[in-house]
Amino acid sequence: MEKVLKPMSGYLALVISLILLCGSIYLFIIGVNDGEYVNITYVVISIIAFILTCFFMKGLMIIQPNHSRVLNFFGRYVGTVKDNGLFFINPLYSSQKMSLRSENLQGQTLKVNDKMGNPIEIAVVMVWKVGDTYKAAFDVERYSDFVKMQSEAAVRHLAMSFPYDNLEDDHAPITLREGGDKINSILEQELTDRLSKAGIVIQEARISHLAYASEIAGAMLQRQQATAIVAARTKIVEGAVGMVDLALKKLSEENIVELDDERKAAMVSNLMVVLCGEKAATPILNAGTLYN
């Protein structure tokens, strides 16, 4: 589990390091130039001061905004520093840099089969960041590669769980093409479940590309057009039947003309041709009687 540390400020350690460095240089110069003989005491003290300088400098650590350092002590996790600034830590600690910034991942376009077995192309774009530095550093190997591989697996699983549209599955409650926010929400949850073991937080995930595969795109387009034509014709026929029924009722209620069954059938046929035809009908005037 992640443990956040609050190390001491590094400015005091920096000042001490500079003082020790200057003192080391000064003592070394005095020890070497002390008459005809080298003053061993000054030289030894200068060497010790230089070693202490290196010790303090090794413990200094600069952390940029939205970055962190994961600290270890001889293979044991010590904690994570998330504050930014200059700090001083145990010089024996080893540290691993880790960014806490949000990152974009534009997934490559994948060719998969949807729930009905149709080959489709799908791609997603997601925004993610490291939420738990311990999991990202120690529970997975190279968490950035883990994010890429698991996001691809999540997209494939999503595509196989739902049909592309409801042409073949009329009772499908959710489709990839019309699911919208619901599909994106399911995708975010799928990614969260897969990437939580690496300490990754999914901030947003959206489908950026969705289409039938090229080998069936033409056939599916014709099918969609045919479905649209059938739906439009159905609406036209329903409207025409209503208009014919209204016309017959009005003629009967107003006593405009009495029609027998044969003439009603002829009238219905003519009205349906006029109302349902793709082109405007050419009228023919009957100059004789109703029956001639």
UniProtKB/TrEMBL annotation:
Membrane topology recorded in Swiss-Prot or TrEMBL: Single-pass membrane protein
InterPro entries, per the entry: Band_7, Band_7/SPFH_dom_sf
DNA damage in keyword set: no
CDD domains attached to this UniProt entry: SPFH_like_u2
Subcellular location, principal: membrane
Residue ranges of domain Band in the record: 58-224
Subcellular localization: Membrane
Transmembrane segments: 12-31, 37-57
Keywords attached to this entry: Membrane, Transmembrane, Transmembrane helix
Keyword Transmembrane appears in the UniProt entry: yes
PANTHER family: BAND 7 DOMAIN-CONTAINING PROTEIN, MEMBRANE PROTEIN-RELATED
Protein name: SPFH domain-containing protein
Organism: Chryseobacterium zhengzhouense
